[in-house]
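Backbones bend. We report:
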Amino acid sequence: MRITITMVVLALVTATTFWGGDDFFPFAPFKMYSFSKELDGWAGSTRVEVVNEEGERFSLTEDATGFRRAEVEGQKSRFVEDPSLLEYIAQAYEDTNPDKPAIVTIEIIERRYELEDGHQTGEVVEIVEASYTREGADQ
């Protein structure tokens, strides 16, 4: 019986290493650790910025919303495809901070750094990947 269980676990680990994704962990490696990046090119850093009713612009943190940056980055393609989903992050902020002004606009911004031999060249580009403004909001 132990040999059978061991063989099944070994087969799962082997199969998911080649065909699995993060959802199969611990039977598959996390993608972020399973490959290396090129030393030349662009590296990105994602953040979520908002504008509130008073016109203040600031970055959202995990403490303010309960959303970790990695969770936002992992779902970024969904937010890009349907920016109205960003309203859920704005709602999480407002639920956590009921005494603060409401969010009018929320954006996912990626700051990209150019690398040469693994070092920053100083070239930085910011791209708004997804943006959502609530209906009826004056901005």
Remarks:
- The chain has a mean pLDDT of 86.
- Residues 65 and 89 are 7 Å apart (CA to CA).
